[in-house]
Q: What sequence folds into this?
């Protein structure tokens, strides 16, 4: 199909480069075409029948030219080259990695973020963008019903949100023991006991590595068959320690969606003067819905919380959030000082005091747009609807002979195993089929299919079509020896 030539209107010219509307208009047209076709195209590149190998994609992307190329041509060639390798992760039948789609208002706002090109390190660098971040942070604390005076830092994702919270925890517990870790480091510091759950997310271990704690020194608290930390053994482990203490709890186990028992965990840790961090990458959003808030009782009493707006708020990527009940510790761990950095009159309005980056895009703007487009009731309904759709998955698949639903479906996660068939065999066939995309995991020592319902675009029809595809792929796999 021949596209009309973009209308050129030069806005600025320097170094022989035009800023004109033609490239922007063409990108908008290509984006619109992609969104219109996304719902019916195969979700995985494997289902398109087009070569999406790394070799073919590299060839299509070409070599670095000796001389510059017209922006319209760059945009057009880029879209054509990348198209065969795109996964429709923003559509209604992508159920991998707890990946939400992007709400229309958030997508549009994110385009403005790139256009405005603001660095939101300091208030003086962009009062407008940082005002949006301040409001978005306040709204998050309100919607998640966390202490309204908590500090908020916007990070690249849940990994760095966990790292930021645990860096704040490290400062707090060592300062209480008379040690300035920011000035003196960890050599010679009092030993910090870190307790983690048996089914913690891998980003916790990674954050502990980044912070110099390592992973082998952590005390591991056992979990039940749904991945919930057992409160009794946790309390015993905490009571057996002395000195600085950090405990990492979890809101939403990544396989089952289960929640740790926050009330007894917080009681035991606070009695010892320790810090409780809650990894709530997606599960924290359960507090935003009246249908699931009961799962999070006691979470508000923790010392820090992490979440990711892309996972369940359906904001674009680059929307992690670190929140702490101890702003002084948070700022002490993160603040960067230099003669040329002009601090504002209110330290809370200098975002680089609350997250690892100095140069940073205005990532909170898309979060603000997502929340404003949904409203409080819309966020509640989004969470509740995804949980209902997850139950629909479980009910329909569980009614099929040879299929076992492994977990208690309390949130948006469904774990599936197949009698006599290795789950990875079925998963591979589903991904090649292209109707939907599901991932795999290992839970309690055995492989399983993991279905995560997280996108605003998912409908009951998407679930039913996906169930039919999974059953069809199971039937074509045949019985094998399960590993």
A:
């Amino acid at each position: 199909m021949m596209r009309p030539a973009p209308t050129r209107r030069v806005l600025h010219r320097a170094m022989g480069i035009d800023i004109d509307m033609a490239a922007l208009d063409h990108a908008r047209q290509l984006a619109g075409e992609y969104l219109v076709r996304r719902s019916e195209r195969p979700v995985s590149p494997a289902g398109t029948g087009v070569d999406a190998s790394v070799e073919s994609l590299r060839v299509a992307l070409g070599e670095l030219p000796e001389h510059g190329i017209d922006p319209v041509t760059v945009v057009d060639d880029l879209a054509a080259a990348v198209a065969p390798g795109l996964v429709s992760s923003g559509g209604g039948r992508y159920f991998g990695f707890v990946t939400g789609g992007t709400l229309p208002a958030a997508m549009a706002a994110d385009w403005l973020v790139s256009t405005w090109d603001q660095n939101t390190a300091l208030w003086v660098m962009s009062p407008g963008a940082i005002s949006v971040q301040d409001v978005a942070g306040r709204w998050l604390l309100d919607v998640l019903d966390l202490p309204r005076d908590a500090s908020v830092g916007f990070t690249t994702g849940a990994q760095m949100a966990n790292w930021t919270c645990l860096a704040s925890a490290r400062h707090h517990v060592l300062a209480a023991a008379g040690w300035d870790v920011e000035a003196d480091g960890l050599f010679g510091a009092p030993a910090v006991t870190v307790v983690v759950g048996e089914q913690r997310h891998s980003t916790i271990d990674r954050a502990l590595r980044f912070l110099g704690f390592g992973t082998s020194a952590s005390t591991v608290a056992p979990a039940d068959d749904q991945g919930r930390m057992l409160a009794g053994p946790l309390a015993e482990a905490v009571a057996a320690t002395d000195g600085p203490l950090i405990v990492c709890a979890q809101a939403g186990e990544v396989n089952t969606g289960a929640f740790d028992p926050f009330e007894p965990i917080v009681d035991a840790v606070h009695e010892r003067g320790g810090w409780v961090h809650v990894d709530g990458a997606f599960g924290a959003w359960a507090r935003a819905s009246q249908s699931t808030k009961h799962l999070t009782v006691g979470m508000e009493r923790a010392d820090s919380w992490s979440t990711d707006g892309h996972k369940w708020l359906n904001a674009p990527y680059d929307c992690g959030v670190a929140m702490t009940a101890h702003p002084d510790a948070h700022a002490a761990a993160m603040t960067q000082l230099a003669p040329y950095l002009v601090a504002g009159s209110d330290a809370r309005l200098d975002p680089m005091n609350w997250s690892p980056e100095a140069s940073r895009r205005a990532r909170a703007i898309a979060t603000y747009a997502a929340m404003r487009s949904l409203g409080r009731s819309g966020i509640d309904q989004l969470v509740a609807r995804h949980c209902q759709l997850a139950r629909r998955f479980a009910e329909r698949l569980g009614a099929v002979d040879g299929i076992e639903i492994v977990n208690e479906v309390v949130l948006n996660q469904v774990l599936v195993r197949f009698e006599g068939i290795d789950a990875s065999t079925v998963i591979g066939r589903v991904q090649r089929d292209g109707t939907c995309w599901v991932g795999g995991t290992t839970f309690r020592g055995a492989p399983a299919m993991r279905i995560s319902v997280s996108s605003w675009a998912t409908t009951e029809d998407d679930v039913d079509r996906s169930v039919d595809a999974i059953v069809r792929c199971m039937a074509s796999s045949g019985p094998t020896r399960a590993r």
